[in-house]
């Protein structure tokens, strides 16, 4: 399977086509745009309820972040219960705590119902503080967890060779193989009569009182409901101002002494490091993640891997590095995901975004919420995760800060674009955004001398793209659209490619 970057994740396996024989002109109850865990789980739930559904995927199933996650299944989150109590009140925080347990239960139910073999296992997680500041954070986390009835126990030992000051054990967490899981869900979905159309780009929708017309690269589709499970919805929406794109890095290593920690682990650094193991071709590998940063805000993304690798080698007896990959996630401004009706639309268009580092959990939970909203018109989680929620206090400072940063990126990149006199100023392997006359361009020169020249203005809302050397992609710092070296769109919210001027080989 393919992913949205040049690197290969540990989950990528053979290319498997899921497209069914589809007549797009027939009537569907619901079209789900996006073939990651959110889209596939939602489509299956709706199909199980008797709906006739179709999944539209711009590339292939698992192309986006589901193929690049580290697939921890934890019911404690990046936004802590203490923070949720402070911003949303105790009762809402209790519901928030319940949501994680519900999500893992949904995964377990699917595994049992469809007899899925996806390396799912329940295990303990350890959260550990490395310094005094982190100790305070940990205390806060444990206090918040106790208030919402979530079990965390202080321990004197952790199964990781990392010096720590304090640590807690959190029972009953889990891990799985995300691609094996969603592929099995796709098979179940098809068995139930569901349709999948891969390599089909959703372009725009028209919403009427009783139906929606979705225009795609393969024709129009008429449906009752539309779900954007595209990580962030396309078009221009208030959600683009309340969610910020981030990149996270993961690597998989073999260890010399075979002393793999069996449990899940997390420190409290900023950004934090996280650990799990995964069997790969009969051998264990340690997967470590971290080094997160805002999309487009690292001068050299290759350095993020170097830093992560050095950190892991400091603590573990690493033998070989097998995989290194990165992926994108969205940070919601008030800390909670947005799952429900798409703001600015009537009643028939839905979305799910802002999962932070808890994509497997909230992607799965979205399937229940969106199913309930579409089939019954309500969900117990609707008030908490409603994309239309207005929390003037929670997240307001961050809202202002994030959008000021987007405006700053926009202006800075427009004004300070370098001029170059000749393409020969670009060295092999280098990439640059530059101005020529009144236009700006993005140029990548391959090691063999081939130039790839694009217009550098993002078709979503006209920010300038920035180079991601680790994934050989052009990333937009404003809302996270990404493109390959030929300008082909890898991630939305844009639905368009960057304008391609040419690729050519210099003699
Ligand atoms: Fe919005 Fe590029 S993603 S301007």
UniProtKB/TrEMBL annotation:
SUPFAM superfamilies registered for this protein in UniProt: FAD/NAD(P)-binding domain, ISP domain
Segments forming domain Rieske: 418-507
Protein name: FAD-dependent oxidoreductase
One MF term in the entry's GO annotations: 2 iron, 2 sulfur cluster binding
UniProt KW Iron keyword: yes
InterPro entries in UniProt: FAD-dep_OxRdtase, FAD/NAD-bd_sf, Rieske_2Fe-2S, Rieske_2Fe-2S_sf
Keywords assigned by UniProt, alphabetized: 2Fe-2S, Iron, Iron-sulfur, Metal-binding
């Amino acid at each position: 399977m393919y992913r949205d970057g040049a690197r290969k994740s540990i989950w990528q396996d053979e290319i498997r086509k899921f497209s069914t024989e589809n007549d797009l002109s027939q009537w569907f109850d619901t079209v789900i745009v996006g073939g990651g865990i959110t889209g596939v789980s939602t489509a299956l739930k709706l199909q199980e309820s008797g709906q006739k559904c179709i999944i539209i995927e711009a590339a292939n199933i698992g192309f986006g972040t589901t193929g690049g996650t580290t697939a921890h299944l934890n019911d404690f989150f990046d936004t802590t219960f203490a923070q949720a109590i402070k911003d949303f009140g105790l009762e809402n925080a209790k519901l928030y705590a319940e949501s994680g347990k519900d999500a893992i239960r949904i995964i377990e139910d699917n595994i049992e119902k469809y007899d899925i073999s996806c390396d799912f296992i329940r295990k303990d997680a350890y959260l550990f503080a490395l310094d005094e500041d982190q100790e305070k954070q940990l205390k806060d986390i444990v206090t918040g967890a106790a208030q919402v009835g979530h079990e965390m126990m202080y321990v004197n030992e952790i199964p990781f060779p990392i010096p720590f000051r304090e640590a807690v054990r959190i029972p009953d967490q889990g891990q799985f193989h995300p691609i094996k899981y969603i592929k099995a869900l796709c098979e179940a979905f098809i068995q139930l009569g569901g349709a999948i159309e891969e390599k089909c780009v959703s372009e725009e929708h028209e919403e009427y009182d009783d139906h929606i017309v979705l225009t795609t690269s393969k024709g129009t589709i008429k449906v009752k409901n539309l779900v954007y499970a595209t990580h962030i919805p396309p078009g221009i929406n208030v959600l683009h101002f309340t969610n910020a794109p981030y990149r996270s890095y993961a690597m998989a290593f073999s260890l010399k002494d075979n002393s793999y920690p069996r449990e899940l682990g997390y420190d409290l650094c900023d950004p934090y490091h996280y650990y799990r193991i995964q069997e790969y071709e009969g051998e264990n590998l340690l997967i470590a993640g971290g080094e997160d940063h805002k999309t487009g805000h690292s001068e050299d993304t290759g350095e993020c891997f170097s830093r992560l690798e050095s950190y892991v080698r400091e603590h573990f007896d690493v033998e070989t590095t097998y995989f290194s990959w990165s992926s994108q996630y969205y940070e919601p401004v008030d800390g909670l995901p947005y799952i429900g009706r798409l703001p600015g639309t009537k009643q028939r268009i839905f979305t799910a975004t802002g999962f932070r580092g808890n994509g497997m959990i909230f992607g799965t939970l979205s399937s229940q919420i969106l199913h309930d909203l579409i089939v019954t018109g309500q969900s117990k989680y609707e008030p908490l995760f409603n994309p239309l929620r207005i929390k003037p206090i929670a997240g307001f400072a961050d809202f202002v800060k994030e959008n000021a940063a987007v405006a700053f990126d926009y202006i800075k990149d427009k004004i300070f674009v370098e001029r170059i006199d000749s393409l020969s100023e670009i060295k092999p392997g280098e990439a640059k955004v530059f101005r020529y006359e009144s236009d700006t361009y993005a140029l990548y020169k391959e090691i063999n001398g081939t130039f790839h020249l694009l217009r550098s203005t993002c078709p979503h809302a006209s920010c300038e793209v920035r180079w991601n050397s680790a994934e050989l992609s052009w990333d937009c710092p404003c809302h996270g659209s990404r493109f390959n070296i030929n300008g082909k769109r890898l991630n939305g919210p844009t639905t368009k490619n960057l304008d391609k001027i040419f690729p050519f080989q210099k003699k």
